[in-house]
Amino acid sequence: MTNHWRLLYTPPSNGAWNMAVDESILEHIHRGESQPTLRLYAWEPACLSLGHAQSFKDVDMTRLKANGWEVVRRVTGGRAILHTDEITYSVTGNENEEILAGGVLDSYNRLSKALLYGVQSLSLPVEVKEEKHTTASQNLNPVCFEVPSSYEITVNGKKLIGSAQARKKEGVLQHGSLPLRGDLTRICDALVFENESARQAAKDRLLARATTVESVLGVETDWETAAQAFVKGFEAQLGIRFQREEMSQSESERANELVKEKYAHPTWTERI
């Protein structure tokens, strides 16, 4: 059976707007006003996103501002990601949607297969590793790309895509990022460490455990090419037929409200 989904490409935007759009879409789907959606997007300026339950004390605001970066808190779990030089995807739909049904790991596994197919079409020698991880290791580590997760997409043992999912009363939201190029260790310049030696050690660990598309292929892959690969993966693996559309006026208006009320407000960003 073919699943009809909406495909959104939204222009590079700041962190608060990007997170507000995902939540606005989820609310509209819950009310039956929007279809299940795959949204592909980018960030401008670069932005550090914190997991839902991550301490704001992990952020070195002086260094963050010196680099011209922003900070936002996600509704999904996991640890910090510096969003720059990447393609980000979000999947939103009802929990009774066939692809999203069954719980976090079931849906995460299905979506991982689509992501895997997509990045394989970019000639990346990727594989999915079903990792068992402990809560303790996550709590001690502020960096998402250093923490193993279930159905992780890796290249030569290094993490390539970081994803996280939230299941709420309104439905399911999963988003994740594929680093296309650039220095992954930049994130360590936005986080608090005991001393510079600890910061450098974190950078070394990150390079040993994560990678970018350009690092693997030796050539740059542009955003549009990566976006087409993601779409191809979802179509081939999940039987989705996409209709390319724009956000509705109602979705945009609600996103603006969520920026002001939540994502650009310290009561949300700095709440822990």
Task: Describe the protein in words.
It contains 9 helices and 11 strands. By secondary structure, it is an alpha/beta fold. The strands form 2 sheets. The protein has an 8-stranded mixed sheet with strand order 7-8-9-10-6-2-1-11, sandwiched between helices. A 3-stranded mixed sheet has the order 4-3-5, with helices on one face. It is globular and about 50 Å long. 46% of the residues are buried.
Give start-end ranges of low-pLDDT stretches: 133-139
Mean pLDDT: 91
CATH superfamily: Bira Bifunctional Protein, Domain 2
Order of helices and strands: EHEEHEEEHEHEEEHHHEHH
What percent of the residues sit in helical stretches (DSSP H or I)? 25-40%
Task: Tell me the number of strands.
Answer: 11
The CATH architecture:
2-Layer Sandwich
Tell me what portion of residues adopts beta-strand conformation. 15-25%
Distance between the termini: 44 Å
Number of domains: 1
Radius of gyration over C-alpha positions, nearest whole angstrom: 18 Å
What is the strand arrangement across the widest sheet?
7-8-9-10-6-2-1-11
Q: Report the principal-axis shape.
A: globular
Q: What is the count of DSSP helices, taking H or I runs of 4+ residues?
A: 9
CATH class: Alpha Beta
Q: And the CATH topology? A: BirA Bifunctional Protein, domain 2
Q: How many strands, which pairing sense, and closed or not: the largest β-sheet?
A: 8 strands, mixed
| Coarse structural class | alpha/beta
